[in-house]
Design a protein that fits this description.
Length: about 210
């Protein structure tokens, strides 16, 4: 028997059979690089990557497999919408196909380096305070911000030596940001880390604090 997914006699799966996707991180406008990576993997895990990348075109509306394609397209669309902050949904819900929605999000939140967004992200990193938050939660928040900054404000250098020097300076500032955010009970380990020369990487710093 043919296993071709376009076989007319193949029953269309109910949307419920595909399950839900609930990311811990919803798209909020500033965390697109992290969010898109998680979302793409989640949809790929359902076997429906083609609905966001457009690898396969939708069948003609008269094709017997069109209802199955449409059903899966609606599932992907809803998964994405359900993992976007409510304040952003109205801006993107007008798209009809999942691929259009996916590309619209990339255009709106993933392309270019809006100076205001970049400055706001830097402001958030320098203003971050632990205030009783778990160390793991604080680290995750910083990871999200640093990833977003890196995607919008990449290393501008063009030679190996200048790139390396820029990265070292950036790493030093990131370590400072993380240590400044920690509660006072970490003061001893903070002093120990800051007195090390050369200064440890941010991952090593996190490991030492843990």
């Amino acid at each position: 028997m043919s296993t071709n997914p376009k076989t007319p006699n193949q029953p269309s799966p109910h949307p419920e059979s595909l399950g839900d996707i609930n990311l811990k991180t919803k798209l909020d406008g500033d965390n697109y690089p992290l969010w898109v990576n998680l979302m793409e993997r989640a949809i790929g895990g359902k076997g429906l990557t083609s609905h966001i990348t457009g690898v396969s075109d939708p069948p003609p509306i008269t094709d017997p497999t069109y209802p199955t394609w449409q059903q899966r397209n609606h599932c992907c669309f809803n998964w994405i919408i359900n993992n976007i902050e409510a304040t952003l949904v109205n801006e993107v819900s007008q798209y009809k196909a999942t691929k259009d929605l996916w590309e619209g999000l990339a255009t709106t939140y993933g392309s270019g380096a809006d100076p205001f967004q970049v400055s706001n992200l830097h402001r958030q990193t320098y203003g971050m305070k632990q205030r009783g938050m778990t160390l793991e939660a604080l680290w995750q928040k910083f990871q999200d911000l640093w990833l977003s900054i890196d995607s919008r404000d990449p290393n501008p250098m063009d030679t190996p030596s200048s790139i390396e020097k820029y990265n070292q300076i950036t790493q030093r500032h990131i370590v400072y940001q993380f240590l400044w955010a920690l509660d006072d009970r970490y003061d001893t380990i903070k002093r120990e880390i800051l007195n090390k020369e050369p200064l440890s990487s941010v991952r090593t710093t996190y490991g030492m604090v843990r």
